[in-house]
Amino acid sequence: MISMYIDESGSVHPTSEKLNRYFVIGIVIPKDLKKLKRVYKTFIRKNIETLRILDTEGKMFDKDGHFIELKGSSMNKPMKLNFMKFFCQNNLYINSIL
Hints:
single chain; 98 residues; alpha+beta; 3 strands
């Protein structure tokens, strides 16, 4: 069985806001699901304090401070680039469409 991750960003509804001008779908097929999970957890562990600081709207951590999920909308540009670099250097994907 092939594992596939699909995510979307943006809105399909007409809007005049610049931030919602595009609707993007990303599909990623990992080579090694166990390694992907391990790398994901490592990224979070190495960046947990910075992620807490960036999470000003409470999207990545619950009220008790427990991690929920990564949210690109809560990350600044340097953290997004750090995330991409971290995952791409580990050669985790068979294919991706972004």
